[in-house]
Design a protein that fits this description.
By secondary structure, the chain is mainly alpha-helical. The protein has nine helices and no strands. The two termini are 29 Å apart.
């Protein structure tokens, strides 16, 4: 049994040595680490033309491609897989909106910032005590906005729940990210 303390990069090395990597317990552990990230990204990017479930499927396909293509010399797996998942989902959204040639033609301004910091916090969310320690440096407004954001709410939904403007929600999240980035 593999310890949950094993890094993603170490898991990938073990997975690549397996005769049937897709059926290994190491792959199951790696999938469990990123399932929440995939679901949250899909929930944020869904539109009237593409459902969250379809985006999750795209996210998992990107995840498996990332496991195969990852090169540890070029950086961390979490950053690489996050980018792969986001790009694959953006392409799916663009295709669903009739932009079959290039995802760059689609206006992604409606999709909230999906920084590596947010992905790191989502992964940490499994250990609520660690997240609470990190979030304790935030003001009440920043804390509330970040908790809602980590729970998958959009800027507009955060603004509604907190009874503030979307711009105020964006500002609170920006300040929170800046403070948390300094800690991480």
């Amino acid at each position: 049994m593999i310890s949950v303390k094993v890094s993603d990069e170490e898991l990938i090395a073990i997975i690549r040595e397996q005769p049937d990597p897709m059926q290994s317990s190491e792959m199951a552990l790696l999938i469990s680490r990123y399932s929440r990230v995939i679901r949250i990204k899909a929930a944020k990017m869904k539109t009237k033309n593409i459902e969250s479930e379809d985006l999750c499927q795209e996210g998992y396909l990107a995840f498996f491609d990332a496991v195969r293509a990852f090169d540890p010399i070029r950086g961390s797996f979490s950053a690489f897989v996050g980018l792969c998942i986001t790009n694959r989902m953006k392409n799916a959204v663009a295709k669903a909106h009739g932009k079959l040639e290039k995802a760059d033609d689609y206006d992604f301004a409606q999709i909230p910032d999906d920084s590596a910091l947010t992905d790191d916090l989502i992964l940490l969310k499994e250990d609520d005590e660690s997240v609470e320690k990190l979030l304790s440096v935030l003001t009440e407004k920043e804390y509330c906005a970040m908790k809602l954001y980590l729970d998958g709410f959009s800027y507009k939904q955060i603004a509604e729940k907190m009874n503030i403007t979307p711009k105020s929600a964006d500002n609170a999240l920006s300040r929170a990210r800046k403070k948390l980035r300094q800690l991480l």
